[in-house]
């Protein structure tokens, strides 16, 4: 059904959290340290009769845990899931088993979810047995009917799962889910293990079954094209939270959440010369054990909001924040900028302007010629003669180090704001002296984005379309690209360590 507004909610999910204990090993226990994974962290949605809600996000964003929590295949830590007004989280095991007749699950990997000792007939017939829906000849006839419904042959009932192709196995998994005549099917990455041509067949099958039986689907996928193809409404998930949701056509048209925008720009086009829209999402989803303060996406967001105190473009602010975050996590300066004996380094200059950080007379060390170390200087540990492995970046001249750090993080020299430039210079001094903690503290005292201090609520940008990003707060000034000096986001609470 393409009219997302029609129909009653068959499923209502309110404030679902699924946290679990990841305390591991002797050291954690010795230190009395407990580690809680916040896999799903306060998710709400409604699923209406006959519609499809697509949930999309990268690996590790919590979408599979959400899918399993909704059906209580894993127990939510908090929140409620209502099916036709009844709270599933309050049901006894027996009552839940009975209720599962209405709520089915299709797994990502059909082979591992099918018992290899059962024939296809028994795989599909098992739910009929469990729920006492059919026996004997009636059961056999129903199994044959279900196999045909999903595009398999009745004769396939005698085969074992390993005798089917991947696509056929997924059809079998769908037939098993259909056996109990459910209202809702949660499909967890239903086509990600399949070839592209088979993916289309399975997606078309799901659409046909929805039209025939009025099914409602929650489809979990990391592939936006799959989600766009099947969904009436879309929820974009990042690190345990929904960051954007709305009707499919609204979510796929601007305005976007910056995370949605980055996911969209990564979709490859059929044109082999197409190179994307240029938004690169660096790194991976951070650990859900200790999510970032404020907006959880701030550690990777290409559109991070600069603080108003400094006159800096957004991309420079992103670079400064990257430097700060790396300094906070670094266990040595070498993890901020590497130097090899050949001068080839992560972030070291290349081409005609290349700096050889081990050449103390390098002409491209413009910032501090006085830092040059004579090749004869016995304290010059960067001498090529005794360089057999990666060099210690703190032993290159201060000026060269400055160039390398700026190259690594894409920072201009000088920064367009004099105060910001002075602060960065002090931080680079501290890094060069191997005082990493001090550098991190210095950067963290000076460069703090509103995105680090405020956890965005969902701002409504259209009918049934919400985006959890401070850029949609009333106080955000498009013209200056931030909040006016002294202004704070009005719709979001301050959070996190920088509070
Ligand atoms: S709140 Fe800030 S970090 Fe989060 S998505 Fe919006 S601009 Fe990016």
From TrEMBL:
Pfam families per UniProt: ABC_tran, oligo_HPY
A biological process term (GO) from this entry: transmembrane transport
MF term (GO), any: ATP hydrolysis activity
Keyword set includes Transcription: no
All copies of domain ABC transporter, residue ranges: 11-264
Keyword DNA repair: no
Region of interest (Disordered), ranges: 338-397
Bias (Low complexity) ranges: 357-372, 380-390
Keywords annotated in UniProt: ATP-binding, Nucleotide-binding, Transport
Origin: domain of life: Archaea
Record family assignment: Belongs to the ABC transporter superfamily.
Protein name: Peptide ABC transporter ATP-binding protein
């Amino acid at each position: 059904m393409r009219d997302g507004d029609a129909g009653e909610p068959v499923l209502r999910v309110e404030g679902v959290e699924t946290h679990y204990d990841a305390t591991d090993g002797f050291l954690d226990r010795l230190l009395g340290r407990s580690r809680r994974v916040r896999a799903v962290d306060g998710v709400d949605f409604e699923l209406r009769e006959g519609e499809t809600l697509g949930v999309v996000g990268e690996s590790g964003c919590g979408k599979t845990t959400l899918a399993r929590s909704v059906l209580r295949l894993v127990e939510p830590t908090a929140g409620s899931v209502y099916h036709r007004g009844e709270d599933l989280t309050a049901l006894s095991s027996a009552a839940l088993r009975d209720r599962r007749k209405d709520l089915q699950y299709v797994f990502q990997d059909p082979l591992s979810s099918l018992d290899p000792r059962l024939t296809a007939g028994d795989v599909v017939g098992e739910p009929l047995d469990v729920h006492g829906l059919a026996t004997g000849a009636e059961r056999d006839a129903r199994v044959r009917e279900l196999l045909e419904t999903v595009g398999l042959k009745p004769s396939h009932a005698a085969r074992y799962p390993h005798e089917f192709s991947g696509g056929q196995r997924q059809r079998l998994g769908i037939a098993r889910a259909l056996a109990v005549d459910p209202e809702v099917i949660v499909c967890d990455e239903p086509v990600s293990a399949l070839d592209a041509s088979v993916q289309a067949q399975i997606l078309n099958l799901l659409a046909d079954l929805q039209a025939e039986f009025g099914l409602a689907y929650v489809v979990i996928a990391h592939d936006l094209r799959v989600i766009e193809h099947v969904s009436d409404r879309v929820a974009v998930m990042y690190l345990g939270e929904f960051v954007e949701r709305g009707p499919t056509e609204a979510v796929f048209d601007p305005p976007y959440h910056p995370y949605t925008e980055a996911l969209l720009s990564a979709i490859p086009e059929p044109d082999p010369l197409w190179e994307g829209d240029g938004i690169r999402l660096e790194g991976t989803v951070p650990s859900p054990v200790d999510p970032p303060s404020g907006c959880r996406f701030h550690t990777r967001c290409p559109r991070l909001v600069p603080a108003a105190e400094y006159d800096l473009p957004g991309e420079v602010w992103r670079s400064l924040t990257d430097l700060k975050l790396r300094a906070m996590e670094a266990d040595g300066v070498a993890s901020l900028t590497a130097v090899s004996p050949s001068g080839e380094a992560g972030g070291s200059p290349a081409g005609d302007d290349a700096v050889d950080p081990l050449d103390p007379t390098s002409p491209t060390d413009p910032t501090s010629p006085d830092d040059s170390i004579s090749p004869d200087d016995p304290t010059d540990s960067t001498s090529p003669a005794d360089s057999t492995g990666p060099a210690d970046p703190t032993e290159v001249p201060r000026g060269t180090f400055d160039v390398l750090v700026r190259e690594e993080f894409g920072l201009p020299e000088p920064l367009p704001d004099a105060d910001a430039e002075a602060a960065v210079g002090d931080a680079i001094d501290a890094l060069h002296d191997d005082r990493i903690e001090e550098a991190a503290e210095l950067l963290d005292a000076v460069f703090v984005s509103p995105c680090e201090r405020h956890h965005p609520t969902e701002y409504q940008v259209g009918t049934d379309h919400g985006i959890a990003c401070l850029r949609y707060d009333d106080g955000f000034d498009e013209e200056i690209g931030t909040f006016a000096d002294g202004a704070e986001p009005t719709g979001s609470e301050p959070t996190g360590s920088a509070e």
